[in-house]
Amino acid sequence: MKKNITALILGILTILPVRAETVLSPGGKVCVEAGVDANGTPVYSMRFEGKEVIRPSRLGFELGTGAPLLDGFTIHSVENRSFDETWTPVWGEEKQIRNHYNEMLVCFEQKGSARKMNVRFRAFDDGLGFRYEFPLQESLAHFTIREERTEFALTGDHTAWWIPADYDTQEYNYTCSRLSQIGSLSAAAIDANVSQTSCSPTAVQTALQLKTDDGLYINLHEAALVDYPCINLDWDAASLTFKSVLTPEMTADKAVMFAPRSTPWRTVIVGKSGADILASRITLNLNDPCALDETSWIKPVKYIGVWWEMIVGKSEWSYSHYPSIILGQTDYAQLKPHGRHGATTEHVREYIDFAAENGFDQVLVEGWNIGWENWFGCWKEDVFDFVTPYPDFDLKGLNDYAHSKGVRLMMHHESSAAIRNYERHMEAAYNLMNEYGYNAVKSGYVGDILPRGMHHYSQWAVNHYLYAVKQAAKHKIMVNAHEAVRPTGLCRTYPNLIGNEAARGTEYHHQGKDGIRHFHTCILPFTRLIGGPMDYTPGIFEMDLSKTNPNNHGKAEFTICNQLALYVTMYSPLQMAADIIEHYRRFPDAFQFIKDVAVDWEKSLYLEAEPGDYLTIARQAKGSSDWFVGSISGLSDRTVKLSFDFLEKGKKYIATVYADAKDANCVTNPQAYTITRYIVTNKSKLSQKIVESGGMAISIREMVPGENTKGLKKL
Questions:
Q1: How far apart are the first and last CA of the chain?
Q2: How many domains does the chain have?
Q3: Which of 266, 285, 304 is the C-terminal boundary of a domain?
Q4: Residue 252 gets which letter from DSSP?
Q5: Does 387 map to a domain?
Q6: From CA 113, how far away is CA 70, in angstroms rounded?
């Protein structure tokens, strides 16, 4: 142990800057130092309210050719500025967002080569963002990056909530452990049905949530990931340091750069509570302002769909079981249907009727188009054309019927990760959507990327995802991308990117108790949602999956009230009521909350938040006096003590509380709940027990003068 401590101290001494420049955040809470060490290596460090958060850490790159950008630097110049704006998102967790920081641009020049590498630091009161910038220069005009060498040297063996590094998926259950345990726990953390392509058994993905022993909360992530590979972080226990590892291409080099260029931002969000992390807007603020001239066509969406029944095996995406389908050659009229196709005209009409009856905006239909017979795992380039419906799906007739009911259909484009094929067909597919009045698409990238050898999170694939969003914007189409790279706040610049998956979502509950761990949804807001909203697809009311499909014996482990609360705690402007129609008809009183809850917000308050343990969030509907509260628990029962002091003084409200019943249990009695209506004011307080993997959801509306309140309780 003494040897390790001595080695750590010596390592710190070797990278202490010999010249350092300093920038303070506007309120003085965050202090960032940057400079060069004795070897001329660029380094930086960070403090929060006087506490060290990031020890002196190295910056730089290994290049594909030529000397690395790692040492031999001097500080050529330093520029400082302050910035303060308040901007209005098209949709979001709050109506307006303040972007206030002090900035320091440190211009490094490498002796001998005269190559320039600048690092721009932005100090916010709740954290730090920094990125590399390569100005136009003769000596570094076109180059390739073999590896980025950014470091995050931490101050101890913190508690971490993490998933293993992977170049193709984030769909893992989270593990909570000490940082020192990451390597030894990796095998247990990886799910058997997901193949890891990790750079190292000690590497993890961002956003990474940490907590120090003295109660400081730290989040590491990236912002504005554009034309660059996604980052992973490899833990070096000896130096207590995370080192960046980029997602590779098929070649040894990981990124191709043309100056002038900048990298994505590396972010460190810090706070004294879990709520501070959730309230931070650093990720959004580090992205460019909206790039679209007109955004009135972008609307938050509440939808249902023909989807969950396929997930649990009640029906199928495909029309037949024909072993091989060839686009342009197979005559579906000659094929025998297997009789379990979900996306039939008759069935979709039922969903349209249900959506219209209950105030939903759209109906997602998966499996409407030809090609599903042999789409998965076949290394097949021309699997879908995204325009040709199955014989039992009346494309025009269903759209006409939906529009007559005031409902839209939501398009589904599963690319099967054949990206070149999708791009070839994209213009025709978007034109078809315009022709029939679709304004939103759920795209998918299931399977290994084509061309073979590429990864979902490489520079090449990252460029495709943004290309799809930009092309969609030209057609006034909103995009909900599944299996794409994790979000990094680009929804500020392109607000038609209305949702992503990029994490383990509700569909994994079809595996039963091992599908999603009880604390999963108490972690996601601290990790995956730091970069942007998720299409988590909540709202499952029937946990015994055999009642949906007799051949599926799995049981999802959460309560109905947990599912209701997710509509508030799992922020998204794209919210699905994911279960099948029959189950909502069995619980109409609980379903009322899903119908009522808003999807766009004036204000959000993070009342209590502890990663993996619990969340309680209150949100005010945009342009309304209505409020909604969601509270969820992780691995244990707890009592929520809620104050309604966020309500306007002098007014009375009616609060409808959906809560776990006294005998509720996420395994043995998940459908037990109570609904109680109260008269409340800003002085009211509520104490309510929720169970493990349970929840509480509250809808609050201002009382109408003279309203009959007979039978309502007062708080």
A1: 57
A2: 2
A3: 285
A4: S
A5: no
A6: 13
For the stretch 507-517, pLDDT in tens is 998 887 778 99
The parent domain of residue 705 ranges over 632-714
Instruction: For residue 623, give the 3-state DSSP assignment.
Output: coil
Q: What is the DSSP letter of 596?
A: H
pLDDT tens per residue, range 268-302: 999 999 999 999 999 999 999 999 999 999 999 99
**CATH number of the domain that 145 lies in?**
2.70.98.10
Each residue's pLDDT tens digit, 467-495: 999 999 999 999 999 999 999 999 999 99
Measuring CA to CA, which residue among 288, 305, 297 is closest to residue 496? 297
Complete edge-to-edge strand list for the sheet that includes strand 255-258: 61-63, 142-148, 255-258
pLDDT for residue 193? 44
* One-character DSSP codes across 22-38: EEE-TTS-EEEEEEE-T
Distance CA 91, CA 620 (A): 13
Active site residue 507: yes
Tokens 């023909």, located at residue: 306
Is there a domain that residue 601 lies in? no
- Whether 12 is covered by a domain: the verdict is yes
Q: What pLDDT does 330 receive? A: 85
pLDDT of residue 7: 52
Confirm whether 333 is domain-assigned.
no
pLDDT in tens, 323-336: 888 888 888 888 89
H-type alpha helices, 359-504: 395-404, 419-436, 459-474
**Separation of alpha carbons 460 and 230, rounded Å:** 11
Give the residue with greater pLDDT, 17 vs 311: 311
- Please report the beta strands in 125-254, taking only residues with DSSP state E, as ranges in sequence order: 127-134, 142-148, 151-153, 159-162, 175-178, 203-205, 208-211, 217-223, 231-236, 241-246
- Euclidean distance between CA atoms 343 and 368, whole angstroms: 5
The domain boundary residue, chosen from 245, 263, 285: 285
> For residues 464 and 447, is the Cβ–Cβ distance under 8 A?
no
The H or E element containing residue 690 is strand 685-690
148, 507, 557, 692: which one is catalytic? 507
pLDDT at 104 over 60: yes
- Report CA dihedral (576, 582, 587, 590) to the nearest 10 degrees: 10
* List of residues 6+ apart from 311 with CB closer than 8 A: 507, 510
Here the CATH number for the domain that contains residue 676 is 2.60.40.1180
Concatenate the DSSP letters of all residues of 309-327 into one string. Answer: HHHTTSSBS-SB--S---T
